[in-house]
Design a protein that fits this description.
This protein is mainly alpha-helical and 256 residues long. Helices cover 53% and strands 7% of the residues. The chain is built from 12 helices and 4 strands, in the order αααααβαβββαααααα. It has helices spanning 2-7, 13-29, 46-58, 62-69, 77-87, 106-115, 157-167, 176-182, 190-199, 203-215, 220-245, 249-252, and strands at residues 98-102, 125-129, 133-134, 137-141. Helix 3 (46-58) crosses helix 5, helix 5 (77-87) crosses helix 6 and helix 9 (190-199) crosses helix 11. It is globular and about 65 Å long. The two termini are 17 Å apart.
Length: 256
């Protein structure tokens, strides 16, 4: 929550704290269990995090963070300190840990691994997750700050349909005749990529969709319809679980 606050000029702590709790509902709705899961919110759990972060901060100099992140003189000191705070949850318990994260967070944890032995802690192991492409195309990443580039877990069926049809980048051809002749490119088509990453668990069905689209047998509109149906089917269940999760939220929050 604090990283968004520091990095976005018009963001408030109230908003970022709300985002953190809303994100927590999605984790709970996906089936995480309170006995195995504790959600840490930096601004709420600073009593636990700060002593660890302070040890890291003492061993990270500005020239290092400047070189890694490209900080400038105008960068606020919150962003400069953030790596120290990001590292702290790795060492709340004195045991080896495994950290899954998006590749954009890699610089923070590379520094974490460098510093860990200096405070007599084991280096955390890392798993890099791919970035989910934005609706607008595979070169961008999905961002919660741009509603036209993102499907939210709270979107209605009508909104999902509108976003996919209007904004989902197509790997198809400019017109039907050319598409039937040349076929589409599933490697850059966002609808196909979402099916591949999230919504089509059957490899044979996914391969058939891939082949039909690439050959021109399947049109972009037909591919989008498959995705829309699958997203809305998932969200209908997820949104109910998400509402049910509100009564469980306190069980998941880490207590200092």
């Amino acid at each position: 929550d604090d990283e968004k606050f520091w990095s976005k000029k018009d963001m408030t702590l109230e908003k970022t704290s709300k985002f953190a709790l809303e994100n927590a509902l999605d984790f709970i709705a996906l089936g995480f269990k309170p006995e195995n899961t504790k959600i840490i919110i930096d601004t709420k759990n600073i009593k636990t995090l700060y002593p660890i972060a302070a040890q890291f901060a003492k061993r990270i100099n500005f020239s290092n963070t400047k070189a890694v992140f490209g900080f400038e003189n105008e960068t606020n000191i919150g962003m400069i300190f953030y790596t120290s705070l990001q590292s702290a949850p790795c060492f709340i318990e004195d045991m080896p840990v495994l950290i899954p994260f998006g590749v954009d967070q890699d610089p923070h944890f590379r520094i974490t691994r460098d510093i860990a032995p200096k405070i007599n802690k084991p280096k955390p192991a890392l798993i890099h997750n791919i970035m989910i492409p934005a609706l607008g195309g595979p070169k961008g990443k999905m961002s919660a700050s741009n509603e036209n580039e993102t499907i939210y877990t709270t979107d209605s069926p009508e909104v999902v349909k509108k976003k996919i049809n209007k904004y989902a980048f197509s790997g198809g051809q400019p017109d039907i005749e050319e598409h039937r002749k040349k076929g589409g490119n599933p490697d850059i088509d966002v609808s196909f990529q979402y099916l591949r990453i999230f919504f089509e668990p059957d490899d044979k069905k996914l391969q058939q969709i891939h082949d039909d689209y690439k050959s021109g047998k399947m049109l972009t509109g037909e591919l989008k319809e498959i995705l829309i149906e699958k997203i809305n089917k998932f969200l209908a269940i997820h949104q109910q679980k998400r509402e049910d999760a509100r009564s469980q939220l306190d069980e998941f929050l880490f207590k200092d």
